[in-house]
Amino acid sequence: MRHTCRGTINLATANITVEDSCNFIISNGGAQTYHLKASSEVERQRWVTALELAKAKAVKMLEESDDSGDESVSQTDKTELQSTLRTLSSKVEDLSTCNDLIAKHGTALQRSLSELETLRLPAESTEKIKQVNERATLFRITSNAMINACRDFLVLAQTHSKKWQKSLQHERDQRIRLEETLEQLAKQHNHLERAFRGATVLPANAPGTGGSAKDPCCPAKGDVSDEDDDNEFFDAPEIITMPESMGHKRTGSNISGTSSDISLDEQYKHQLEDTKKEKRTRIPYKPNYSLNLWSIMKNCIGKELSKIPMPVNFNEPLSMLQRLTEDLEYYELLDRAAKCESSLEQLCYVAAFTVSSYSTTVFRTSKPFNPLLGETFELDRLEENGYRSLCEQVCHHPPAAAHHVDSKHGWTLRQEIKITSKFRGKYLSIMPLGTIHCVFHSSGNHYTWKKVTTTVHNIIVGKLWIDQSGEIEIVNHKTGDKCILKFVPYSYFSRDVARKVTGEVTDPTGKVHFVLLGTWDEKMDCYKVIPAVGDNGAEGRQRAHEAEDSRVLLWKRNPLPKYAENMYYFSELALTLNAPESGTAPTDSRRRPDQRLMENGRWDEANAEKQRLEEKQRISRKRREAEAARATEDGTPYDPYKPLWFERKKDPITQELTHVYKGGYWESKEKQDWTLCPDIF
């Protein structure tokens, strides 16, 4: 078969091997291998014989297919091909005519030169004539070679044209088949969704007050909710019944429980009054909106993934800047590290903090909003937790965000992260580029590390799941201590614990002092290494690793809030990040209208608002490009875009160009002077 589904092996290239009396193996020499077992040796032999015969037939068919004409080629393609070949032939004939003329004139030229040689001329003239004669001969030889090469090219084009045409037709067929398959999947999804809704009609609640405008977290009145987080990813939904005390299902456009005639600013001010009192513990539940996958996919074929305009259905109501700030969920690890007298012990806590930043990703398969250029996000927890954080989107192509955190408990964290992604068909690889710096004030220890690759699996079909893989090297640039963390990629056949992380903390000589073991979604343990007497280092480390009395729990994941599955699987910190706060900059992510509309469940309005913001950003970028072009033409100086709160400098430790916080934000907030902030929303 030329076109196959996933899991098939092409018989023409298959390897069929016998393992023992009843078992045999079929493999394609790559990732696809089948181990088969027959009921008896006779049965096995019948199968192997049948497969070998089928393989011989497949090989013969393949050879015949290669030799046969381009039967599948359309008449239009044939006409185009013949026209091209005719053009090539006429050009070669023109070249051949030119060659004959060159040969004719070249012969006449050589004859004239020979006659000149016989004349009695000065010695110098004779020498010049000989040189010209030699060059004329070389020119004639070269022109002959060129014509021969053109003839060879024509023969080659005629020989391979059929294969090229078949390959082209094969690619076209595959594309058409892919489009048909996607359309079929979309239709099946819609059909299943309608069937599901028709089969699960739940009794309506008694009439009540429902959600009021004063509580943005309480949905509008209606039926018991059948919302589901997986609906976004085209799986068959499950019924999740909410207790009546938690609210009701959203219906119509009044999904957030806020009247549609109330402006977004009024909602923001009203929510502000509530959030001043205490940190919020819930957000409006995710609505159960259907999405026609085909309507998006059919317009995306052949486009670069990063440039596809995605609706908010794929998002969660947080920006990338807020997701970056979520790294601080377990800030206590750095507080404890700041108190450590030993740099090696301190490194253990820094390593645990590094791993803890991935714990929020395990269920979070929605993508955050891409920040607009100049967008900021602050998190001021100086009174409650002793730190305050600031993020700013410093570049749009490629997307890059700078982050700076100061803690009164003696540490500073800074990073600049650029996100690159590659779509591999079945999965999406997300590679954060950039170095993270952590400096402890009292000891002067300066640590750096980079993030690992995040992989989102089952992009097209199936339930989405996330994995982390790769290595992180954490280096203390003052002492030379190192920690190598290994994130083991998930394997169906592995007996290891899923999402496993291992690590070793070493001094500058390479001697191992601590072994780290755990998972990036649950906890990290630390074991002190004391090599046993008479054992080599590896065995000694193993014994210390197994010694339960030396185990120290460095970090354990906080449980998710109640009903987190209905709230995008947000952690307690994530639930508070988009809560309105007074005094923040006009560029703060909390003030972003499309994100606020999505959080309140008004997704159609959010999509329209998202398009407006992206178009506004596009116009600003084009205006800057036009100004730069004019300045170049006029020879006048032009200042490119510069971030407001960060400046680009060469890092003395890593020698990289990176954006570093230049100060001024918190002073501007205290004065409420935001005159320098751009109008991005």
Automatic annotation (TrEMBL):
GO CC terms, sorted: cytosol; perinuclear endoplasmic reticulum; plasma membrane
Highest taxon of source: Eukaryota
UniProt biased composition (Basic and acidic residues): 588-633
Residue ranges of coiled coil: 168-195
Domain (PH) ranges: 1-56
Keyword vocabulary terms for this entry: Coiled coil, Lipid transport, Lipid-binding, Membrane, Phosphoprotein, Transport
Start and end residues of each stretch annotated as Disordered: 207-230, 580-636
Membrane-topology annotation of the record: Peripheral membrane protein
A single GO molecular function term of this UniProt record: sterol binding
Entry keyword Zinc: no
One BP term from GO: lipid transport
Compartments in which it is found: Membrane
Family affiliation: Belongs to the OSBP family.
PANTHER family per the UniProt record, alphabetical: OXYSTEROL-BINDING PROTEIN 1, OXYSTEROL-BINDING PROTEIN-RELATED
Entry protein name: Oxysterol-binding protein
Annotated organism of origin: Dromaius novaehollandiae
